């Protein structure tokens, strides 16, 4: 039964990553890693058909409709393509088509890395735009698409109904411009242009779409009432004549050799393109041949998508430096001989920890193979010992902090090495940066460069000093270290505004080890104020949902420090809120002693809103399902938590059930 267990594991894993990619626009793994998981599941389902099920993720498109946007049913199902990963796979597909069809031609196109949309036109006028969603029902983003300059608002030939499919994307130049601006104001740094484009198109504010300058390529004609086309290439050329920006530089081929040459040419130029691609698409050109070939249960038989492997390059490790994080963690960083990789110049890559260095046997002077995880984050894959110079020596992270000179010690039963100093400047800088971040106190305009400048010039030493910056307004304006008058005033206003935050934000901002924003919310929901949390005993904390021994010990240890007491007293004097507003909203105790777990997308409320309702009536919200769980509140696309709830016999409720429990 090991095979069945592995199949179930893979299904849960794919469903989870589908949710991250399609609905949250925030993937945790690379496309390549996702493809490998999917391939393994397809192979196992094929070899063991007795374990096949109709709702397997291999049988459906990964996304769902976003709750806030109007749902629209597709006229033509929006399907994915079969992925292939080798030259042999491409030749096999092309040669199979040649055997089944009469002298077919093929179109090879760039697979733009963006968000798929369908555009609808009535009598030549643009009337609707829809995301893919689950392939059957998408979400209307019409108002946002109106803000994209290259979406034709009307076309010359006024056919009764026209439907085309395209890919909305963001150019590399725009992506870099937005991230530079985010860095200047201390905002979130976006990881990929694709995710930013997808998130932007699904915004409820069209002004954001206009500001971010999205673009589109149309790659398929779905419906055209009043005109017939013989081939895909003919339809693309006609669409181009109507003002659409169609698949750039698509290539018509007749043989497998020509198809592979076209794929190789795209691969060779991919990093010099002004936009991202995640593969090349090979399609049968004839539309009548496509109709004859039809589809499998999930993908068309007349097309495949070739996925390029991550680009890898050789370079040398010129040095290894150590960075000090906000919690004192010492992170080794490989300083590399600069090399052009995946479209940018790479000169450094994290080495994570000492165990990572030892396992991969990475030494200064080594020749190494590097790639970008997800074409974004540089990583060292391995060293090449046969190219190692004689003078290369094994590297050991120092046993003293490189910034403050305090002893550095390895965690007991852990892999991290941390600075033990209490006055480490590097820790202090990163601590203030984290305090100002969006998940914590959300102080706009206080980015890493501003924090470092303020601390270097002595205006702040810790987070409490932020609330005294207004006393130095004129000096800061004159020196210009964080900008001119407007920038200084905006920052002072943002700092002042942060005083009103609920205490979960403040607790998060303290940067207590193993305490993130969810843990901070639990504390705020169970204690009247910060003083009560500081005075809490082990027995009070360990009973809270998802609180384990290590986390509780970290909380107790943090609040036991005299320096923390002094810091909190200074924050109080500055007027920072210390009272839990979560408890002020409490209505009664009908959910007292009950623990809820939330999973999936709810129809009319966010998970945060549902959490607030549960806490208002005395309930607790946990992140994981166990025998102690009272209810699992399940929405659309619920994943592994729902499966575990069924296995344990935990009661499963819907949003309507929750509302009914509250109303009654």
Q: In the CATH classification, which architecture of the largest domain applies?
A: 2-Layer Sandwich
What is the first-to-last residue Cα distance? 46 Å
- Name the CATH homologous superfamily of the largest domain: DNA ligase/mRNA capping enzyme
The domain tally reads: 6
Family: Belongs to the NAD-dependent DNA ligase family. LigA subfamily.
Domain BRCT: 586-664
Binding site for Zn(2+): 401, 404, 419, 424
Enzyme class: ligase
Q: How would you explain this protein's 3D organization?
A:
Pfam families: BRCT (PF00533), DNA_ligase_aden (PF01653), DNA_ligase_ZBD (PF03119), HHH_2 (PF12826), Nlig-Ia (PF22745), OB_DNA_ligase (PF03120). It is an enzyme of class 6 (ligase). Keywords: DNA damage, DNA repair, DNA replication, Ligase, Magnesium, Manganese, Metal-binding, NAD, Zinc. One of its GO terms (cellular component) is cytosol. The protein has 664 residues and is of the alpha+beta class. It folds into 6 domains: 2-59, Helix Hairpins, CATH 1.10.287.610; 81-306, D-amino Acid Aminotransferase, Chain A, domain 1 (2-Layer Sandwich), CATH 3.30.470; 312-397 and 406-410, Beta Barrel (OB fold (Dihydrolipoamide Acetyltransferase, E2P)); 425-498, DNA polymerase, domain 1, CATH 1.10.150.20; 503-584, DNA polymerase, domain 1; 595-663, BRCT domain (Rossmann fold), CATH 3.40.50.10190. Helices cover 38% and strands 20% of the residues. It has a 5-stranded mixed sheet, with helices on both faces. The protein has a 5-stranded antiparallel sheet with strand order 14-13-12-15-16. The chain has a 4-stranded antiparallel sheet with strand order 5-4-7-8. The longest helix is centred in the first third of the chain and has 22 residues, at 2-23. The protein is globular and about 85 Å long. Residues 61-67 have low confidence and may be disordered.
């Amino acid at each position: 039964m090991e095979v069945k267990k592995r199949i179930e594991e893979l299904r849960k894993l794919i469903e989870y990553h589908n949710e991250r990619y399609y609905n949250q626009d925030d993937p945790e793994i690379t496309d390549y890693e996702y493809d490998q998981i999917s391939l393994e599941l397809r192979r196992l389902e094929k070899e063991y058909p007795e374990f096949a099920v109709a709702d397997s993720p291999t049988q459906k498109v990964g996304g769902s409709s976003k709750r806030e946007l109007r749902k629209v049913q597709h006229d033509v199902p929006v399907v994915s393509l079969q992925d292939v990963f080798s030259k042999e796979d491409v030749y096999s597909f092309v040669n199979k088509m040649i055997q089944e069809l009469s002298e077919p031609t093929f179109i090879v196109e760039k697979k733009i890395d963006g968000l798929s949309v369908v555009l609808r036109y009535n009598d030549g006028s643009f009337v609707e735009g829809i995301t893919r969603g689950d392939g059957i029902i998408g979400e209307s983003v019409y108002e946002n698409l109106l803000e994209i300059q290259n979406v034709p608002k009307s076309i010359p030939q006024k056919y009764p109904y026209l439907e085309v499919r395209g890919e909305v994307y963001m150019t590399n130049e725009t992506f870099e411009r937005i991230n530079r601006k985010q860095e200047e104001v201390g905002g979130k740094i976006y990881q990929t242009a694709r995710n930013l484009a997808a998130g932007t198109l699904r915004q409820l504010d069209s002004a954001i779409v206009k500001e971010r300058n999205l673009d589109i390529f149309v790659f398929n004609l779905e419906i055209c009432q009043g005109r017939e086309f013989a081939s895909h290439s003919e339809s693309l050329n006609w669409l181009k004549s109507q003002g659409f920006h169609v698949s750039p530089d698509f290539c018509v081929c007749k043989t497998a050799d020509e198809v592979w040459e076209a794929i190789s040419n795209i691969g060779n130029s991919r990093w010099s393109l002004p936009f991202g691609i995640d593969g090349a698409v090979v399609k049968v050109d004839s539309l009548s041949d496509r109709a004859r070939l039809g589809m499998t249960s999930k993908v068309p038989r007349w097309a495949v998508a070739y996925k390029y492997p991550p680009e890898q390059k050789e370079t040398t490790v010129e040095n290894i430096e150590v960075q000090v994080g906000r919690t004192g963690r010492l992170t080794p960083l490989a300083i590399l001989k600069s090399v052009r990789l995946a479209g940018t110049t790479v000169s450094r890559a994290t080495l994570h920890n000492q165990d990572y260095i030892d396992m991969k046997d990475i030494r200064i002077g080594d020749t190494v193979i590097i790639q970008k995880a997800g074409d974004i984050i540089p990583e060292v894959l391995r060293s090449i010992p046969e190219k190692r110079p004689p003078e290369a020596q094994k590297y050991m992270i120092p046993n003293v902090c490189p910034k403050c000179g305090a002893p550095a010690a390895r965690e007991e039963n852990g892999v991290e090495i941390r600075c033990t100093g209490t006055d480490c400047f590097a820790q202090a800088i990163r601590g203030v940066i984290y305090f100002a971040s969006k998940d914590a106190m959300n102080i706009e305009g206080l980015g890493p460069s501003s924090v470092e400048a303020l601390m270097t010039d002595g205006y702040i030493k810790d987070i409490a000093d932020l609330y005294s910056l207004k006393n130095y307004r004129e000096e800061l304006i004159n020196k210009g270290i964080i900008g001119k008058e407007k920038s200084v005033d905006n920052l002072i206003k943002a700092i002042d505004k942060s005083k009103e935050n609920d205490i979960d934000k403040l607790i998060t901002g303290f940067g207590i080890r193993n305490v993130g924003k969810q843990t901070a919310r639990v504390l705020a929901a169970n204690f009247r104020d910060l003083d009560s949390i500081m005075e809490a005993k082990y027995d009070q904390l360990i009973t809270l949902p998802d609180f384990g021994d290590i986390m509780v010990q970290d909380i107790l240890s943090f609040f036991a420090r005299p320096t923390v007491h002094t810091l909190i007293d200074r924050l109080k004097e500055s007027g920072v809120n210390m009272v839990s507003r979560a408890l002020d909203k409490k209505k009664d105790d009908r959910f007292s002693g009950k623990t809820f777990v939330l999973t999936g997308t709810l129809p009319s409320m966010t998970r945060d809103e549902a959490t607030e309702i549960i806490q208002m009536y005395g309930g607790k919200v946990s992140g994981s399902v166990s025998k102690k769980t009272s209810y699992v509140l399940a929405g659309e696309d619920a994943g592994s938590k729902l499966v575990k709830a069924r296995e344990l016999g935990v009661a499963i409720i819907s949003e309507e059930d929750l509302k009914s429990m509250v109303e009654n």
